[in-house]
């Protein structure tokens, strides 16, 4: 039988964009490995990087060429590549923390929409940021239980984390859970919730409302409305109302605070907005509306258009959240990034574990105004 010879398929050459992506990926992995090196230390050879990371030699050479151009490394011929004094000043943030973080949260895995929830997005950003610094995390899901049980506490102890990230939820007894987690004797951070007994990374909801209303005032509106759910039990709702009252008192404007029930037991929320709330605001001479959430702002826009009103020419509308589901409205909004909460929470935990910050401490994540076409 004749032997059939076939040629090896030639590897497809990477385009410039693919090469840049590969170089950036290798850079992140290499910086993770060499973060403890000092100026004058030798770097891994091209062969060593090839064996360890399995990137092409072209990618490795391009990375080292980039480092040389930036003055971060210098080549000494056959002796290899060596770090310069510029390395740590350029990559001061690339440290290997090697932390283990326990995440206590309520994630509804059975709900297909849970991937879009604030808790899931925050956890994802926290985990990916932690991984960049050689740290790992493990989820301890409350699975709908109101409290952190003794069994869960024992599971957390067995994991032996360096710190805990706690994600509050309206279904949980949050303050009691924070007291329980404090028994572990390690740093605990509560995200998006103020606490006097643990560290917290939060949004300043009072300032968020002030930012939204101030934008309308600066646009010349002197009679505005603030629409939110009737449930005042949430701390962030109380803070936002306080922010609205503060900025209105400081100006010569007036504001109608509308607290309405938005649930299907009382009928269609959109119909309620169109038949009751918005007509009353139009009749009272309101020219600007802030929705305490993009959902309420979007409902207001739909109602205004159904009633023949132009946005923003007749009535301007501002939301709060910058939630992806309402981007089609091109809504002016105050951006609340839970992803930034996750990144900030990890950085704070790392600083606390290393003794750079004292407990308890509070960090506020800034929330910028994103101006679009509705104002």
Q: How is this structure best summarized?
A:
The chain is built from twelve helices and 14 strands. By secondary structure, it is α/β, with parallel strands linked by helices. It has a six-stranded parallel sheet, with helices on both faces.
Structure description:
There is one protein chain. The chain is α/β, with parallel strands linked by helices. It folds into three domains: 69 residues, Orthogonal Bundle (Arc Repressor Mutant, subunit A), CATH 1.10.10; 103 residues, Rossmann fold (3-Layer(aba) Sandwich); 131 residues, Response regulator (Rossmann fold, 3-Layer(aba) Sandwich). It contains twelve helices and 14 strands. The chain has a six-stranded parallel beta sheet with strand order 4-3-5-6-7-13, with helices on both faces.
């Amino acid at each position: 039988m004749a032997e059939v010879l076939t040629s090896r398929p030639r590897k497809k050459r990477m385009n410039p964009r693919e090469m840049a992506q590969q170089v950036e990926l290798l850079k992140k992995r290499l910086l993770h490995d060499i973060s403890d090196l000092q100026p004058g230390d030798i770097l891994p050879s091209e062969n060593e990087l090839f064996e360890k990371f399995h990137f092409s030699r072209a990618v490795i050479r391009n990375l080292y060429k980039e480092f040389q151009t930036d003055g971060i490394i210098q080549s000494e011929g056959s002796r290899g590549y060596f770090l310069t004094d510029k390395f740590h000043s350029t990559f001061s943030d690339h440290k290997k923390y090697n932390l283990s973080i326990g995440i206590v949260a309520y994630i509804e895995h059975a709900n297909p929409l849970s991937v879009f929830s604030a808790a899931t997005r925050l956890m994802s950003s926290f985990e990916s940021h932690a991984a960049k610094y050689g740290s790992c995390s493990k989820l301890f899901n409350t699975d709908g239980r109101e409290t952190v049980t003794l069994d869960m506490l024992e599971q957390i102890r067995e994991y032996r984390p360096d710190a805990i990230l706690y994600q509050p939820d309206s279904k949980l007894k949050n303050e009691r859970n924070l007291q329980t987690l404090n028994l572990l004797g390690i740093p605990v951070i509560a995200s998006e919730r103020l606490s006097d007994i643990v560290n917290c990374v939060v949004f300043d909801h009072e300032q968020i409302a002030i930012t939204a209303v101030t934008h309308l005032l600066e646009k010349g509106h002197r009679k505005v409305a603030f629409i939110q759910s009737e449930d005042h039990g949430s701390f962030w709702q109380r803070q936002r109302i306080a922010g609205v009252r503060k900025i209105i008192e400081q100006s010569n404007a007036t504001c109608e605070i509308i607290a309405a029930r938005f649930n299907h037991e009382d009928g269609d929320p959109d119909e309620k907005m169109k038949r009751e709330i918005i007509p009353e605001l139009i009749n009272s001479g309101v020219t600007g509306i802030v929705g305490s959430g993009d959902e309420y702002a979007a409902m207001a826009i739909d109602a205004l258009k159904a009633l023949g009103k132009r946005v923003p020419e007749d009535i301007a509308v501002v939301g709060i959240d910058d939630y992806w589901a309402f981007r089609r409205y091109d809504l002016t909004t105050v951006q609340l990034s839970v992803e930034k909460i996750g990144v900030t929470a990890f950085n704070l935990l790392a600083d606390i574990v290393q003794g750079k910050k004292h407990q308890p401490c509070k960090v506020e994540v800034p929330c910028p105004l994103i101006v679009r076409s509705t104002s």
